[in-house]
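User: I'm new to structure prediction. If I give you an amino acid sequence, what do you actually give back? Let's try with this one:
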Amino acid sequence: MKKDVIIVTGAASGVGRETALLLAKDGAKVVCADIDKEGLRELTETMRKRNLDAKTKVTDVGKPEEVEELVDFTVDTYKRLDGIFNNAGIRDGTHFDDVDPVRYHEHLATNQHSVFYGMHYAAKKMQELNTKNGRIVNTASIRSYFGAKKSFRYSAAKAAIVSMTMSAADALAKDGIRVNAVAPAFIDTGLLASVPQERRERLEKKHLRGRLLKAVEVAKVVRFLFSEDSIAVNGATLLVDDGFLAVH
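Assistant: Good question. You get back a string of structure tokens that encode the predicted 3D arrangement of the chain. For your 248 residues, that looks like this:
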């Protein structure tokens, strides 16, 4: 990936941050996007200390014009685009009874529509540039495969991403662009910091190793999907769940 230019959204923390670091360590030029200005500042400092090549851009991925600006910024900076990791998202614990139409669409703007925006503008730019071996990776979830009364919006968005990934892979195969996704189980990040200890322990036991995933473990699978080693993988959603769905 030494010549690759890759966009990573949701890069200020968690899987996005770890993926950006891994890709940059492998020699890629990474454009890190997030709505979290402070998180991006910290990531920039970390990358500078490690002599990694990366740029950052504050972006609200729920707004199509900002995603388009992100893609344009990347190409203006590096004169090419080889891939995008549509990772930005927010968790949800709102009961179905408390979800009104406005809040529903606000949630999907970040967790589902943003993935379309990223695929749309990145693919369009890679087509214009005649990019060889373009790659798109999306973040789905184990919630793509089952529902819960307090995860209605999140499950709806993540389920859509699986289907969107397959359809986009079919549509973009003619351009040599591969589209895949990862579907992680529960990851030990700040998003779970407020989860009561009793529930956390229940979640840990549902993973076959008896613990939550680490963000870097998911990031390594994302890195694989951007690498030449995954050349035969297309239109797939890879479970990164430590057996969660196999036994639950």
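You can read the tokens as a compact description of the fold. Here is one thing that stands out. The first helix runs from residue 14 to 25.
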